[in-house]
Amino acid sequence: MNTRAISAGLVLAIAAACGAAEPAKINPVAMPDSERAKQVRDMRFGMFICWSFSTFSGREWTRGVKEVAFFKATACDTDQWCRTAKEAGMSYILFLTKHHDGFCLWDTRTTDWKVTKAPLGIDVLAKLRKSCDKYGIKLALYFSEGDWTWKGNKNPERKKAQLKELCTEYGPIEFYWMDHAQSTGGLDHKATVEWVRKFQPNCFVGFNHGKPAGRLCIRERGRPGPIGNAAATKYNKDAERKHKGYLVAEFTYPILPAHKGGAQWFYSLPKHDQLCHPAEKIYLDYLGSVKHGNIFSLDVGPDYAGRIRDIDVKTLRKVGQYIRGELKAPVPPPAPKPVAGKPSASGTWQNRDTYGPSKAFDGDPTTRWGAPEKSRSGWLAIELTKPRTIRGVRIDEGPWGRARKFELQHRLDDGTWKTLATGTTLGPRRAVTFAPVTVRHVRLNVTQAVEVPTIVDVSLLDAK
To answer: How do residues 27-49 score in pLDDT, each as one tens digit?
Structure first.
């Protein structure tokens, strides 16, 4: 059976059927929270599109731009974005409307610092709305609350005017992903939620950090997990623990792995065009989103011509094939278990009570080991109560992804350490295997990291 042909035919048939669809309408009547939350949870998987000045600077934040012509896109293929999302089994697109630089990707009346004044001259959001309706894709919006074009990054009336345009002129918005990195913009989070709901009462609003509000829990660089699990997010831990109003959790990370030079959330540089997270990792996180009732927004940065990279398209098609059962899908690894008995953990640490070595061996996803502050290396070891024959170690670095070089070792009878395996990156739920060996002491030595090394869990894989 030619599953590739079937998949392509399915997408074309869906696109043709959706081609004459009526423009989406805003529902002005508030739905019961439970009903609306189910609709949002059922969206499951979507594409986060980051496309702005940073696409052309190669940096995540792009300061010092003087002219809108800095946004020198030559084209904008929103149909390709939506078609790829459909092939990937995605149901929505989360679109960046304005980053911290204040550049607006829609034809706003609040400023000339906008895409329709750039050489492209296209209201990208309006074009995307049409493509979404054509392919049956829902639309959500990212919005930087404050921006560098405002004095002190604050202008509450401008923020309200921009959100009103977005809420009233581009059809129904499933949710807002509010970026708090440059302050509230002068309108606090509670008031922001109320303002959005005035125009779209069924639109969820979430904030990546700052004072929690709204019904959507935002997990930037996060992972699947139940609401309230602080280990599932990098930045929003206090909100996870304390805010009682969350109904749905969203997590997101870039499809482009960490690398030297160039952006990660936005298109990086042509030399990085072959870097991409594997379809298997993405699919397993999709399964996690389904299991926990989360929504998973995978970030994909279009290039200078407004198209998604070939490697991203290929990877996402494979994810879609896994979701539809057209390919044999990878099996999720078992959940980590605490190391049996009462082993003795040792190593370097930032704070023994909070980030001590034992936190990496307790099987608790809400705790973690952390190396000393400002360090870029560190180690942790475990002494078992009796010898044990193992064939590998499973390491969970959580959403941080900081390690760049590591080695796994065990101690010999003469006190020296023998290397069992080495590697360059870890990430979530990384299994490192080797020939079976009987051990009493095992050590993970992170010799190089981009930030302070931290590990959520280490578990041993018994030899069979």
So the answer is: 999 999 999 999 999 999 999 99
DSSP bridge pairs for 45: 296
Averaged pLDDT of the chain? 92
Mean pLDDT (whole number) for 165-183: 98
What is the rounded radius of gyration, in angstroms, for the C-alpha atoms of the chain? 23
pLDDT in tens, 96-120: 999 999 999 999 999 999 999 999 9
* Domains, the chain: 13-324 (3.20.20.80), 344-462 (2.60.120.260)
Which parts of 32-150 fold into alpha helices (H)? 33-41, 53-57, 78-87, 124-135
| Beta carbons of 170 and 24 less than 8 angstroms apart | no
Residues in the chain: 464
**41/308 Cα distance (integer angstroms):** 26
Residue 402 CB contacts under 8 Å (≥ 6 apart), including other chains? 449, 450, 451, 452, 453, 454
The rounded distance, in Å, linking the Cα atoms of 171 and 138 is 10
